[in-house]
Amino acid sequence: MSPIVSIIMGSTSDLPVMEKAAQLLNDMHVPFEINALSAHRTPEAVEQFAKGAQARGIKVIIAAAGMAAALPGVIAANTTLPVIGVPIKGSVLDGVDALYSIIQMPPGIPVATVAINGAMNAAILAIQMLALSDKQLAEALASYKQGLKKKIEKANEDLKEVKYEYKC
């Protein structure tokens, strides 16, 4: 099956963070591709990628970058597809620099932005977008979210078993 989501990162050093997005997409049976391209070191390749993504069947792009974090914005400037930016922690500024870079897009070039190292939420947001026109995926997403609810409910019940001397 051809990929409909593209995960792109500025460097393979971002892979440990972005694997969470890849794993969730895989678990939800959403076909995806994963690439490393740099807005600064391979700008022509990034532009070619972004301009050709829709014709290749891509529907959503998840773009991760650290430090100056230009990659999501450069991609968004070259496509009409939705772009989700993932700021990557890794610099002396702990990813705040990347966060600010990604959220400060000019009018007309939006990039949806998740938390620093928020690859999992980027994948969930991509799935939510795709689920608007895919009933089976919408059902799988609802089941996934129900599982999150059950996990917290169980954790809350388990906390009732924790005993402290001065617990009220």
Structural account:
This protein has about 170 residues and is an alpha/beta fold. The chain is about 45% helix and about 15% strand. The chain has helices at about 15-25, 45-55, 70-75, 95-105, 120-130, 135-160, and strands at about 5-10, 30-35, 60-65, 85-90, 110-115. Helix 1 links the parallel strand 1 and strand 2 (about 30-35). Helix 2 (about 45-55) crosses helix 3 (about 70-75) and helix 5 crosses helix 6 (about 135-160).
Q: Secondary-structure blueprint of this entry?
A:
Layout: E1 5-9, H1 15-27, E2 32-36, H2 43-53, E3 60-66, H3 71-77, E4 83-88, H4 96-103, E5 112-113, H5 119-131, H6 135-159
Parallel strand pairs: 1-2, 1-3, 3-4, 4-5
Concise synopsis of the structure shown:
The protein is of the alpha/beta class.
Structural classification? alpha/beta
Rounded Rg:
18 Å
Number of helical stretches of at least 4 residues: 6
Helix residue percentage = 40-55%
Strand percentage: 5-15%
Strand line-up across the major sheet: 2-1-3-4-5
The dominant shape is globular
Uncertain segments: none
Terminal CA distance:
56 Å
Mean pLDDT: 95
Sheet having the most strands:
5 strands, parallel
The strand count comes to 5
Element order: H for helix, E for strand:
EHEHEHEHEHH
